[in-house]
Design goal:
117 residues; 5 helices; 55% helix; alpha+beta
Length: 117
């Protein structure tokens, strides 16, 4: 049975963000991470999604799509992920670092971070 497709995506610009909204964004318009089941499991077990959900009043969960597009919320998400890296298991550090990088990209590009689970 194939893996369940899960991606974390940052549109490169507002045009890409609009295209993503209509499921028409080209790969070159996005910075994305296609998570393996192992990647997802490690992030899930780190508690990062639960903390983001609680702090940002969002619903990042398996079989759900969610977005963080408010600049202040992206900044908060970035801070949470960065802080969690410091106390995370060795196994979770690289995944959290990658998620942190995507949060920083969303901030820098003034777009957002989209979770397609």
């Amino acid at each position: 049975m194939p893996d369940h497709k899960r991606s974390i995506v940052v549109p490169k610009d507002l045009e890409a963000m609009q295209a993503l909204d209509f499921d028409e964004a080209a790969d070159e318009q996005l910075v994305s991470w296609d998570l393996s089941d192992a990647d997802f499991t490690v992030l899930w077990q780190s508690g990062v999604f639960s903390i983001l959900n609680s702090e940002l009043s969002c619903l990042i969960d398996d079989y759900e799509d969610e977005q963080i597009i408010d600049g202040t919320q992206i900044e908060t998400a970035s801070r949470i992920v960065e802080e969690l890296q410091r106390s995370a298991s060795t196994e979770a550090v690289s995944g959290l670092a990658r998620l942190h990088t995507l949060c920083l990209e969303g901030q820098r590009r003034n777009t957002g971070v989209f979770f397609f689970f």
